[in-house]
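Hi W.,

Here's what went into the run:
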Amino acid sequence: MTLRLTRRRFLFLGVTAGVAAALGLVAVWPDGAVLDDDPAAYHVLTARDRAILAALAPALLAGAWPTAPEAATAETRVLLRGMDATLRGLPPRARAEMRQLLDLLGRQGGRVALAGSWVGWATVDPARAAVILTGWRDHSLALLQQAYGGLHDLMFGVWYGDPRHWADCGYPGPPTLRLPS
Amino acid sequence: MSAPLHNQLPDPIGEAFATRWAARHIDGAMLDRDLTLETDVVIVGTGAGGGTTAEILAEAGLAVILLEEGALQTSRVFQLEERQAYPALYQESAGRKTRDHGIGILQGRTVGGSTVVNWTTSLRTPEPTLRHWREAHGLTQLTPEALAPWFAQREQRLAIAPWPTAPNRQNALLREGARALGLAPEVLPRNVKGCWNLGYCGMGCPTNAKQSMLVTTLPAAMERGARLLSRLRAERLEHARGRVTALVAHPLDEWNQVRRTVTVTLRARHYVLAGGAIGTPALLLRSHAPDPYQRTGARTFLHPSVVSAALMPEPVDAYAGAPQAICVDDDLWPTTGEMGFKLEVPAVHPLIASVVIGDFGAAHRHYLHRMNHWFVVVALLRDGFHPDSEGGRVHLDEYGDPVLDYPLTDYLWAGARRAFHRMADLQFAVGAKTVLPLHLDARAASTAAAAHARIDALPLRARRTRVVSAHVMGGAALAPDERGGVVRPDGVHHQLKNLSVHDGSILPTALGVNPQLTIYALTAWLATQLAARLRPATDAAPHPPA
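Here's what came out:
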């Protein structure tokens, strides 16, 4: 039983990663290696955390997310830096909750159990990421619903707090206020 | 972050803190050594209750030290951007949640507290609420007649008056929709002086028109010699034999993390807690304050609020103009015992809009992309008036921070469902193309009939339904008997003689209206009583401004 499961798991991993690569899905979002080159200092998010969040971002932000790979890489960096800054200012419990989630997802066992993904985060494509997010959103476990909500608020908050994305909302931005000279 | 300066207006309060009050303000983030200070009265918190109390005690000639967990932020840093305002001015970067993440809580954390970021709605405590407090909670002295002069005094002090200007489009839609349904919309009083009608109240008023504590009572107290310690968290009260002997505090760093390597000790004749609901009970719990009947943190109320988002054919631009000018109270006091609710509208800006839409991907963007067409109505559920609405309880987590357990009951969900129906009717009455109750299982409906059928079928549960709160009340209730609450009707702690609570945590239930004016009036009354008791017997001269 154990042996069969292991073999099936192995085969599944190979097939999924291979299919994703064949379909070119890995090309439109940045992989972990690119993210590791980000020279910015991160205070909360590790390289492994960043690979997870980078895999989920294109699905969460589908429709608003850029399709060109270079733009996607640039947006990923802005997003990750923003999320890192937000997390840095949160109280210890909120940071610990996010830490536990990311640590769990960063381990192979946790990734398989919580995300149903046999491939590493750097090769999770947006379609698969959308399935993962839907699974958490609609899961019966409070923990996964909270994980969905936490990532949702964090990621959207950084994205739509950014003036570059206001025009997409029909928001002209704040007025400039000064006294008449 | 070098963002462009949207706000280039003068900042008289910031100027005063930089010059004539500079010697009497300590920023905890800059503090690198232990400190012990003595004074007549220590006030923990600078929001509605703390600010009001500080002015009254300082004017009575008492020496006052104000302690504030948030930073000193004045209008020069109010740059009308959510990404700066939320981390700087709100608890937990505006992302505070109940323990099970069922309710998101917007609560201020800055010098001036929530009064710096609220939307200025200033309503007196409803008479049915006061009657309930007298009849069910024994607060016999809280009659409309007894409170009227305190409301009038605070309304005058804070320039509270019905908003005379035409409401913005979203408030106008609320009014039109209510009238179409035969309801009676009301104009809201606001605490503003020379308001520019911009719509950025929630990010700190850039023009200083909003009469928050930051521009009214706190400057008055500073002029009278008060001292302010910002970015300093009250860790615990030390107490012995029924008296508080010291308050121990630690500074926060620039990322709002507590630095326990530095300790500030404050000694006073009297201590006033005004850290707000959630914050004040948490301090009492950290202090192991006597609590023989486990009332500390109990019955914390939120006005849990559900949201209905309509898409209108024409732009609504709900980011612009005074965010709250109209309310609808027809459903606030049902005679059947059901949970009542008040209808208001919120400011709609991109960050907060993106967070309240719970879905993701294409479904999420569909709404964000049309944000300027949203007509959003919020129903604030009046909690705490029914045996099935006991509110929540504040606990401490393993870090000593507060965490609020707030179970969402069937009784509350029944009220929420009625509110969704009412809001959908109101939105279709003014020509909404679609109406979406904010709920993960909801789909937008394009007719009222379809909306009602779907609302009836919605499984209302925590984390599926978007529930938000901007009003935190209770947890250290006024009660004539120590079995019923934490403080006596004069605001003094039942077990600790030289400790008072002057903030929203003293409310025995929610209010049914936005809480600021209730807190101003009650704490002005309590502070005036306290000043009379503490005033030196000799007619000492007031402390001169330094």
